[in-house]
Amino acid sequence: MTITFANFKIAPLEINESEKFFNLIDTNRKRLEDFFAGTVSKTRTLHDTITYCHEIKQKEKDKSYFPFIIRDLQTDAFIGLIDIKNIDWNIPKAEIGYFIDAKYEGQGVISKALGLVIEYLSETYHFKKLLCRSNSRNIGSIAVAKKNGFTLEGTIKRDYKTTKGELVDLDYYGRIF
After folding, report:
1. pTM greater than 0.85
2. What is the C-alpha to C-alpha distance for residues 128 and 139, in angstroms, rounded to an integer?
């Protein structure tokens, strides 16, 4: 799957692009460490990232995880990630996570990319529900979810432990198809 829009491309993560993936995470590490804790912890070094990319490819084959990279076509740099995880094929439903490089925040890139990935997921995998979790202080992430048709389903108290060890509440947003 490859989708292009404006000057951007969305495509699955490839193992031979591990260094670009590492650079994206490393550049944004501080702002991602609390809520992309798994990804951040598995990409501390380039070697770790290569190993992690191999794990991801296996999860893709198993249809248990789908990572989509957003690339700036002018610079060929990785600028964002949309990942599909916690897939329950019984329903089918999944959790969707996303982030954009700090330099691209506020430009509508992640909102547009997320909408295109959701359309792809709906048509290809026929998900009946997608959900995303966000800390209520993450106004940008919540705005992106709402722009893409997600509605607040509720807040789960002390639902997530940050890398600093803080237990925080998470707002759950869902979209039904």
Report:
1. yes
2. 26
